[in-house]
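so my prof wants the structure for this chain in the tokens format not the other one, which i didnt know existed until like an hour ago. anyway here's the sequence
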Amino acid sequence: MQLSNLFLSSFRNHHSANYDFSSGINVFWGPNGRGKTNLLEAIYYICFGKSPIHVQEKVVFSSGSQAFSLSGLFIKDDQKNRVRMQVGRVGPKRIWINDSTCLGRSGYVGKFPAIWISPKEMDIIKGGNEKRRRFFDTTLSQIYPDYLKALIKYQRYLRHRHAALQSLDFDADCIDNYDVHLIPLAQNLARYRRDFLQTYLPLFQKTYGILSQSPQESVSICYETEVLDQDYPQNYKKNLDTDRALKRTTKGIHKDKFHWSMNQERLETYASEGQQKTFLLSLKLSAYLLISKRIETLPILLLDDILDTLDEKRRHHLFVQIQEIAGQTFITGSSQEAFLVHLPEGTKFFRI
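here's what i got, hopefully its the right format
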């Protein structure tokens, strides 16, 4: 799969721009502050229907504009698909595929898969479990449409339950009505996460070994959830008094944890900065590999400002791995010369 053309209008600092891309590696280079990351963000946005940076949508609009639009031409299995998106400051997001309206992100995510890699995502490694759950949710959503649909339902019922817990006019029957949906949805989503990790972990460990070339570094991921415990439904309901006191739901898959480790120690405190960055790259590239295997399509790979964060050895192994496994790739950096030693002939360079 490839994105052969992209048109942007009023997207961040790109008031109007049009690009034709190579099916291989594309590099956006130039001084800082010119919009390289913004262009990469626009590519991810048209693939996934939202920004990878998890910002409020209003900051994506160009200054003074009331809407932004994106138009991309995808080539997938020798078929061309023109995707258009229009997002206003008010009203719903609108998505068209070949002039047919696509209803909602749940019907769009996974059609044009993409993986975003940026050193700014180190909070996946160093931050709390919300970031880690989001990483796995994003990956699973691009493989299993039913996972995304169930996750959206779960989050909607969870918001309603939070509101009911915070209401001055407490209604236990209302809570029960939400719980009838929340408990089985949570169990279903937790099974997806558990089963996915069983397949994902060996691939992740292999990828880390390739990038690090350090066999003495043993890495692992542990998934912790109480949702799959046999007595979870009873414990969930018994917790209602605590939930009422705290005015929020304290049990469920939104409390699941993913633990990173190296040599059986916590990665965050044990590993060096370079090892943690390699861990992040391995997480992302393994997701890329598993998505491409499951849906039999090579996702678009997006790497933002990755060169300056790695030493020469890890840089070399990363680019070797990219050329072996990836399809269309987009990379940003400040200097064209820095890429020449790593990238093959035919790489297309764009000065931004």
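also thought this was worth mentioning. The longest helix spans residues 172-212.
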